[in-house]
Design brief:
The chain is of the alpha/beta class. Helices cover 40% and strands 13% of the residues. β2, α4 and β3 form a beta-alpha-beta unit.
Length: 137
């Protein structure tokens, strides 16, 4: 809601397209989440979700540098949510700060499962954040 407060953002399998996902009862987990999130097929819940859904609130404004990470085999946050989010950000943002989408083609919700692959992912994340903060070795 206040991108001006941040220099850099790192998201890992972010749930950013709340309305589209919650409106699709064929997706795993969706119907079971109605108890927590509300059922967007009911107008009052739809309107409430619309207020905070990140995808639906992207505006023409400056955004911080962003690394958006997703996984092809994620059963909880479908890979197309972050991809769709990044595409809309690229179309609407009013600045040219880095905006990267990284899709792990062999992982699920928790990212890489092997020890060294996991450490490689963490190193990549730290490198991006430190670079954007201007911290260089």
């Amino acid at each position: 809601m206040r991108p001006d407060l941040f220099k850099v953002v790192l998201t890992q399998v972010p749930f950013v397209d709340v309305l589209s996902t919650m409106l699709d009862a064929s997706l795993p987990l969706t119907v079971g989440e109605y108890e927590e999130w509300g059922n967007p097929h009911i107008k009052q819940y739809y309107q409430y979700m619309r207020q905070y859904s990140p995808y639906d609130n992207i505006a023409r404004q400056a955004y911080p540098a962003m690394l958006v990470k997703t996984s092809l085999n994620d059963s909880q946050v479908m890979y197309w949510e972050p991809a769709k989010y990044v595409a809309r950000l690229r179309a609407l943002r009013a600045n040219t700060s880095p905006l990267l989408l990284v899709t792990n083609m062999g992982a699920g919700h928790g990212g890489a499962s092997g020890r060294y692959d996991h450490l490689h992912e963490i190193a990549y994340d730290f490198a991006f954040v430190l670079d954007q903060l201007g911290i260089h070795a």
